[in-house]
Amino acid sequence: MSGAGPAWIIEPLARHHDRKAFSCGKESLDRYLKQQARQDARRHAAAPFVAVAGKGDSVICGYYTLSAYGVDPGELPEATIKKLPRYPLLPATLLGRLAVDQSQRGRGLGEFMLMDALSKALAQSEQIAATAVIVDALDEEAWRFYHHFNFTPFPERRDRLFLPMSAIAVLFAGR
Predict the structure, then answer these.
(1) Fold of 9-172
(2) Per the count of CB atoms within 10 A, which of 7, 20, 145, 159 is most buried?
């Protein structure tokens, strides 16, 4: 992770968080947080997590979502398929959205949230199997962000990337 910076706290999205004030500059990500995130949490469709400056703070600095996902092994690169069991669908964790409020840009919050999400996915995979974390890059900027952290594009869909859980385990080994 980046050097010393703000000490954010990641917590599940709750009623006291001010969703209306959040703006990352990407309309679909802003709209999701404001209109759908709490419903998805209630329905167990996605688990939204928010970054705040301190415990109990209502100002959302950033957010991400995690959910279960099934990936068709045929969509993965051949070298990856060879290392995996032959199942019709492989379990994975979907990092559905990740967004940083414009006021927090350039401070390392995106990386901080990504590492938190990967850490949660790894811990959960020890209880409920997942072979990888999968993301869908909204645009070229997001694609570069994930690629910088060694996510690999799917062969047939450049906007969908994955990071094997084995690579995530290495990332957190010794921590």
Answers:
(1) Aminopeptidase (3.40.630)
(2) 145
Helix (H, G, I), strand (E, B) or coil at 109: helix
Q: Where are the domains of the chain?
A: 9-172
CA atoms within 13 A on the CB side of 43: 7
Per-residue pLDDT tens digits for 90-116? 999 999 999 999 999 999 999 999 999
Please name the amino acid found at residue 146: Y
Measured in whole angstroms, the distance separating CA 94 from the mean position of its chain's CA atoms is: 7
5 has pLDDT over 60? no
Render 95-141 in DSSP notation, one character per residue: EEEEEE-GGGTTTTHHHHHHHHHHHHHHHHHTTS--SEEEEE-SSHH
| DSSP secondary structure code for residue 59 in this structure | B
The full length of the chain comes to 175
Name the residues annotated as catalytic.
146
Write down the pLDDT at residue 105: 94
Closest CA to 117 of 83, 174, 165, 70: 165
**Ordered DSSP codes for 23-40:** --S-HHHHHHHHHTHHHH
> Phi and psi for 88 in degrees, rounded to 5?
-65, -35
Q: 112 and 106 in contact (C-beta within 8 Å)?
A: no
What was the pLDDT predicted at 4?
46
- Give the C-alpha separation, 144 to 85, whole Å: 30
